[in-house]
């Protein structure tokens, strides 16, 4: 049989006894309860005995603000955050949770966490504030320690990341320096040989030809001997820039050393000896450079050996040797020209 409401209420302890039970329970808590008016001085109506253990002041000092106002024991650096949390919660008609420090009459400040809310009258006005405050000093100590350790870990990670970036940049600079000519910025002989091997491997796998132009400047020594090495260096830089204007996205140009350059034409099904020869002719035309000197204009040019893989050679070494040989044939035949295998065979 269910109990009626009146019967259930009659079985509850008397109000005084219930109050004593409540006070006994709150007295055992590691913290305290409070209720204060929502007036300018937050007049304290009730505060439980736990305030003594936290602040060192007896509860009676706070009742009716007889000796102390509660806000007077809140650390001054935390007051703004407490007011902000309370006001924001009241405006939103919800509870607040805020951590702050109590300044006791003994030792150092004690960290507490307050969970509170507003008490409304029948008109919906906030007439009182009440809350439960717990001592979180031990927890705060752990949290602060964890925060410190996490910050230390973050700092170490950032340092390691910075060092890793520095190592990567240093490696990139080292790799660039190891594979590029410092004067012209073009890939160097080492990079060219690596690229040539890759190009031949790709040519074999895709069954498409590649072309190699071996380029040697004409009358470069005369520029050096007449105008000095600085003028020679400037000429080499100009030559590198001119060659780069002829590059397609798939092509590759390198300085092999001195006044020698190599131009790789990557394979596609349209690459024939005629198309490779056409590119070589454009190189010859681009590198016809007039260099003024006290003795008169030095007409710089170039001689180009043109060879194709796999039509003219079976491997990277043979392709390079053939293009080099064709270039020397062109030098002996009058310079400022290009030479192909067909011309060599005809000769």
Account of the protein in words:
The protein is of the alpha+beta class. The chain folds into 3 domains: about 5-135, PAS domain (Beta-Lactamase, 2-Layer Sandwich); about 145-180; about 190-345, Alpha-Beta Plaits (2-Layer Sandwich), CATH 3.30.70.270. Helices cover about 45% and strands about 20% of the residues. The chain contains 11 helices and 11 strands. It has helices at about 5-10, 15-30, 50-55, 80-90, 135-180, 190-205, 220-225, 230-245, 275-285, 315-330, 340-345, and strands at about 30-35, 45, 95-100, 110-120, 125-135, 210-220, 250-255, 260-265, 290, 300-310, 340. Strands 6, 7, 8, 9, 10 and 11 form a 6-stranded mixed β-sheet that branches. Helix 7 packs antiparallel against helix 8 (about 230-245). The longest helix has about 45 residues, at about 135-180. The protein is rod-shaped and about 125 Å long. The relative contact order is 0.08. The mean pLDDT is about 90.
Short descriptors:
about 45% helix; Alpha-Beta Plaits; five-stranded antiparallel sheet; alpha+beta; rod-shaped; Beta-Lactamase; 11 strands; six-stranded mixed sheet; about 350 residues; 3 domains
